[in-house]
Structures are given as structure tokens and as C-alpha cells.
Write a structure and sequence with these properties.
The termini are far apart. Strand 2 and strand 3 form a beta hairpin. By secondary structure, the protein is mainly beta. The strands form two sheets. The protein has a three-stranded antiparallel beta sheet with strand order 1-3-2, with no helix packed on it. It contains two helices and six strands; from the N terminus they run H-E-E-E-E-E-E-H.
């Protein structure tokens, strides 16, 4: 599987990771990718993990508003900058605003 990931994926996003502080970032390392970007919630739910291939320049964009579960990344790909948002929208939150 690691060989398939190396050849076919540029960015890997996993939602509902259920990761928290005891999981070290080194435990989540995938060969050929940079250390993952993480947004942990707790072991009972939520959480985002984003892996970007090593040869793709990326950096996290800090969020001022933290009421949504989201990771913003600036990705430089083929001389273009992309702003990518990786987010989880919980339906129970949406119903509060309708």
C-alpha cells in the first residue's frame, strides 16, 4: 500500500481521526511525505490530518476563528499558489444557523 500512496497521491486528508496529544506526529509519518498537519480534537471524535508529498511546498495558514474544524494550507504546485481548506462540517452545527 505504501508504494501505491507514493506514486498516486499528492495530498492525503483524513477526517475524524480521533487523535489527541498522546499520538506523536512521528507515529503518523508516511515515507515520501512531509510531517502531517494535524488538528486534534479528542479521542471521542473529530480531528483532521493532512499529509502533503515532500516535493510540494506547503505551509499552514493560521485561523483566527476556531469555531470550525478546519486546516487551511497554502500549497505551491507547478508555479501556482493554492489555498486549500480541509474541513469537517457537523450537521448538528448547521441546524443551529437555519
Amino acid at each position: 500500500m505504501a508504494n501505491d500512496i507514493d506514486k498516486n497521491l499528492d495530498i492525503l486528508m483524513i477526517s475524524e481521526t480521533k487523535l489527541d496529544v498522546p499520538f506523536l506526529v512521528q507515529q503518523l509519518f508516511i515515507e515520501g511525505f512531509s510531517l502531517p498537519y494535524r488538528l486534534d480534537r479528542n479521542s471521542y471524535g473529530g480531528g483532521i490530518l493532512v499529509d502533503v508529498r515532500k516535493d510540494i511546498t506547503s505551509k499552514v495558514i493560521p485561523m483566527i476563528e476556531n469555531s470550525i474544524e478546519c486546516v487551511f494550507l497554502e500549497i505551491n504546485l507547478r508555479k501556482n499558489k493554492w489555498l486549500c481548506a480541509f474541513l469537517i462540517i457537523h450537521l448538528k452545527i448547521l441546524f443551529l444557523f437555519i
